[in-house]
Each structure stands twice: as structure tokens, then as C-alpha cells.
Amino acid sequence: MTKKMIEVKDVTMKFKMSDEPINSLKEIFTTALSGKLKYNEFLALDHVSFSLEKGKTLGLIGRNGAGKSTTLKLISGILKPTEGTIVTRGNIVPMLELGAGFDLELTGKENIYLNGAILGYSKEYLESKYEEIVDFAEIREFIDMPIRNYSSGMMARLAFSIASVVNPEILIVDEILSVGDAAFQEKSLNRMKELMSGGATVLFVSHNLEKIEEMCDVVIWLERGKVVMNGPAKEVCKAYREKQSIKKK
Amino acid sequence: MEKKLKKVLSVILFLYAVLAVAFYFLAGEQLKYKESIEKITMSEADAVTDEIVKGMDVTQEFVNTVDRIESVSLVFTKFYREGKGNLIVDLLDGERVLIRQILDLEKLAEQGSVELTPEKPIDDMKGRRLTFRLYSNAEANQSAAAMMSKENVLPDSRLSINGEPREGMLCFSVDGTELIHANRYYWFITGGTGLLLAAVLFHSYNNYVKKNRANYLIRSILAVFQYSFLISQLVSRDFKSKYKRSVLGIFWSFLNPLLTMTVQFLVFSTFFNANTKNYPVYLLSGVVCFNFFKETTDMCLSSISGNASLINKVYIPKYIFPLAKTMSSSINLGISLVPLLLVSLLLGVTLHKSVLLMFYFLACLVVFSLGFGLLLSAFMVFFRDIQFLWGVFIQIWQYATPIFYPAEIVPEKYRFIIRFNPLYHFIGNLRKCLINGISPEPMAYIYCLIFAVVSLLAGLFVFKKTQDKFTLYL
């Protein structure tokens, strides 16, 4: 039996949503006094279960608000489920939003260390991989410049290079392959494939069905927090396409 | 990993032992005495005795309440005359002469208090029946009389002139300290605590190695290993981005407290300069400490909400953020100690060994601020109003802390405010170490430790309880 890297058991995630965001003491008092303090519970995930074996790539598809990003955040530990349990084995690198924690005042070099530390890399590891990161991002001549002077493409390239330099056991990716120019997109896609073939277990969210079909072994189709379908990539994507075309008519 | 852990645990134990021994020598005499709370204070003068001339004998018996007498004072009047001859004051314990002072009547100041100090402090005097005896060799109209109160303020005291009892009592005060003998129990207490610490560390380590169960202590140490790089990166980020585009850069950490002190000195020196010892140092030490508290809490306040984008994208233990902020302002505090010590030296404060004890109170201040920082950062996520409320609150706190004014000017009925003000304890004790050159009394260390630990535990508790909900509100 192959090792299960991710096990999601009966997970429910509820968000409390008030009609208007209540963020201050005054608002809480006034709304509570006027009896309007009601939270609408929003069920982002409703008793979702699945598991993923080592080395497999899982794609999550579904419309906006179906619970894809919530699932990724739950697995990467950013959110805690309201009910149910999530077990993960091995180190996780979440590529949810690249460049989170970049400081615009710092130079590219300083940001490599800062961002690397945030992603959980050790100092020794970053020092050994530093050259590789700079080369991959193609920003060698700008590396000692504060990144507020970088173009958005340069920043994205740097971010992707830092995030993808490790060989994670679990890689979590949320729509990030549209980074930089065409050449860099190609390069980053290859890097992703390289990581996958290196034995990483991958969770992948995209609205691009072609890419999902190309890269994933298994696909889960989510709709309003529920699993509609869980199976081989081709089948699920086909069913999803049919449903979409019915709707369009 | 286990080797590293073992090393850290032994370092903790070793440090504890070193600090315990160092403290004993640094605290010195203050482990034995504390300021007496039962001093006899001068009663209000509304009468005088007869002029004390040759052959006359004024005695004042009283029950002493001070353990270790360091000085006594009396007040005399010469009726504005020249005076000639001597006035002799004895403090007697039965037949034994404790203090004998021969006053030159010519030099005696009109209605000034005369302080008599024994050659060395007199111990074990509490509860004794002592007697002042005043007599003279002066002729009439050339001597002085002692000031007295018509009412007998002290219980069980007796005034008599030439052996005849009189109503009222002399105006006098007795000053001294109380023996507490903390030094007798010191090794016992610190040794016991040390053994307990060793047992806890050993037990935790064993549990971890043999049963692979990490308790709270081990987990915190492991977390430090794991996240020290991240924390150091966040701290250096704070420094780099804070001073990046300023010309003077890190020098601002020196200059800021100095400038604040200068401004406050110019404003307040006319009021408080005269009656406060070394006013600029007094002021600067207060400014440095309070600024640290203010900076830390301000930075911690927004440490979670300000890093919302990060917390929503990557998993990092959330306490890292307030912790990193506290650490960067602690470094700032360390830098601003340089101008504090420089100013102290320039203004002629002799630095005693007690200066080292200052770091104990600084450590308490840091822990206290971290606790507040954790609390505030958690609150801030749920109620954004906190940032404005805190701005007002810290201003009130600033005025309620004796930073630019001496604690003594606070009226007795409001003293409780500063007595329950942890910052006053930290700052006040620090000043004692720095300016007065002596260690505070042993209880002061315990109070400060309690304040710090309570604040930290409260902060940790609230933070831990709420941290899982942070992402839902950010």
C-alpha cells in the first residue's frame, strides 16, 4: 500500500459572515444593542473527505466560491477546520500567493532570505541555494537594489524562484503559473513538472482545465463546499465540461 | 537535535546558578535590611520646653519602633539669641549611652533640626524603651530650649523636666532600617529553586528522549531552534526598513531618547530639578524605559493585523510576529542604554556594582511588555478600535508614571495608583540601582517578577485561545 500523504476526513469549515464586516467595538455595541448582531453562517466546506497518495497530483476544480482555496488553506495549516481532521505527512510548501512577506524597502538579496525564512527554509539551505534562486529569476544585476524598483514581472519571478527552489514532499499551488512573460511561464511550468516527477505530492488549483488535465492524476470537483466528483482527471474534467455547456445553453 | 537540546538545558541550569551567585554579591547589604516602615516621624512643634540651663535636666522616654537606628533628630530654638556654652544630647538605653552629641550653642541654628548619627548603626533596638536626655553647662539667656508638641503623640512616652513629669513630648524623629535577614534564607531558597529547576529540566529531557513526548518546555525550546532564523530575519527587516532611507540611520536609536530627555528637561527642570537627585539621569532613565514599553506595545498592536496578507498565505506560528517586534524594540532599548550610561557618567553619577542589577528590571520590563504585546495584538484582530483606545490609554499611563516628576510629589491618597503601576516599579527600582547605587529591597525583585510573569501568562493565554480565529477576521 502506498503511503497516504494527505488525509482529509469529514472536514467541515464554517465562516461567520455578518452582512457588514464588524471590526470595531463601537459597531459591536451598536449592532448588539439594536438587535441586529446576527451572523450568517457560511458553509465553505461541507463534510469533505479525500486522501492523496505519495507522488500523485491532485487537481481541484469548481466555480468561484466552491471551496477550493479554503481546502488548500486548511491543508497548509493556515485555517483550522471547524469539524473533522486533516493529517499531512512531510514538509509542505504552499505556493498560495507568491511573494507574501516581501518588503519593498529591502533589496532582492535581503528579500530572498526574508521570504525563504517565512517559507521555513533554514539559513544553511538558503545560502547553498542562493545562486540557483538568483539565476532562475534572471535578476542578477538588480539583486542589490530595493525591490520597490522592480517591475511586477521581476518580483513575480523572484517569488516563484524562492518558492520553487525546495524539493517539498507536499506542494500546494493556487493559480500561479501565469507568472512573468511567456518564456518564464514555460520555464516555471517545466520547473513544476520537475518537482512533480521528483516525487512531490501536489495539490493544484486552476481554472484552466487543459492544464489540469495535462498535469493531474486525480481531480476533485467541488460545488458549494461539497465534493461532486472524485476520480481520474480525464473523467472528472469531461463531466465538468458537460455541466458547464449545459448551463450555457 | 537531542545533543543540541541537552546543551541548551545545561546552559539554562548553568546560567541560573551563575545569576543566583552573582545576585548575592551584587545585592549586598540590601539583602539584610530594608527601609524601615515604622520610623518615628517628627511631630508638629507648637510649644517649647523651658530654656535648658546649667543644672537642668530634660528627659524624654519613648518606645522605639525602628530596628536599626541610623540617625535621630531634634529641633531647638535659641529664642533668636546668641548662645554660649554647650548643650549635650544623650540617647540612652537604660544606663547605656547610645549616642552622645555635644552641641556648640553658638553654632546651633535657630529652629533647625539637629541630626545625631551614631558612629555605626545601632542594631536590635526595636521595642526598646529609650531615653533622650538633654542638659547643658550654659548660663540663663545663653542656652536653647527644645521644641515640643503640647500633645503626646506617641503612646507610652513620657517627658519630664528635672524629674517632674510634663504634658506633651519633644519633637524628635528616629530614622533607620529594618533587618529582614533575607540573606540567611537566600541560599536555601535559590538552592531549592535550582534543584527544582534541574529536576524539571531532567524530567522533560528524559520524557522527550525515551518516550518521545515533548512537554511545553521542550516544545518551546524546539520552536526556538526551528524559528530562530525566521525571527532573526524579521528583526533585521524591522531595523533595515526602519532606518533605510534616513541619513543618520541607527544613530536615531541613540538620539531619540536623548532628544526627548532634553525637551522634557527644558520644560520640567524648573519644577523638579532642585529636589530630585541627578534630575537629568532620573528623567532619561524614565524616558528610556517608558519609550520602550510604548514602542513595543505600539508595534505589537499591529503586528498581526499588519501582516494579514502573510498570515493568510503561509503557515507561520502567529506568536512569532509580536515576539519579533518585542525583540527588535529590545535591541533598540539596548542601544538607548548607551546614552543613558554616558549621560550618567558625564553628570557625575558613580556607577556602583548595583548597575548590573538594573538588567534584572529591564528583563522584567521586556517580559511585561511582551505579555501586553500579545494581548493587544490578539485584541486588535477583533476590535480595530483598540489602536485608538490604546493611544489614549498609554498617554494616561505615561502621566500616571513618575517619569518626569518625583514619586514623592504624589499625594498620599493617590499613592495607590503608582503602587499598583508595574512600570513605576520597574523604573523606580532601575533608578535605585543606577542613581542611588544600591540594590532595592528583596521584595522589589519578587514584585517585579510577579508583574512580568502575570502579564506574560495573561498574554499567552488570550493569544492561544484566540489565534485559530485570527484568519477568519483578517
Which key features would you list for this structure?
heterodimer; A: 249 residues; Rossmann fold; 8 helices; B: 474 residues; alpha+beta; Jelly Rolls; 2 domains; six-stranded antiparallel β-sheet; 13 helices; 53% helix
Largest sheet of chain A: 6 strands, mixed
Mind describing the biggest β-sheet of chain B? Answer: 7 strands, antiparallel
* CATH architecture classification of the largest domain in chain A: 3-Layer(aba) Sandwich
- Share of residues in strands of chain B: 15-25%
- Under CATH, the topology of the largest domain in chain A is which? Rossmann fold
Q: Mean of the pLDDT scores of chain B?
A: 86
Q: How many H/I helical runs of chain B?
A: 13
Radius of gyration of chain A: 20 Å
Counted by DSSP, the helix tally of chain A is 8
What is the number of beta strands of chain B?
Answer: 13
Beta content of chain A comes to 25-35%
User: What is the first-to-last residue Cα distance of chain A?
Assistant: 45 Å
Briefly note the structural class of the backbone of chain B: alpha+beta
Number of domains of chain A: 2
**Biggest sheet: strand arrangement of chain A:** 5-6-7-3-8-9
What form of chain B results from the Cα inertia axes? elongated
**Structure summary, number of beta strands of chain A:** 9
| Helical content band of chain A | 25-40%
Instruction: Report the average pLDDT across residues of chain A.
Output: 81
The residue fraction in helices of chain B comes out at: 40-55%
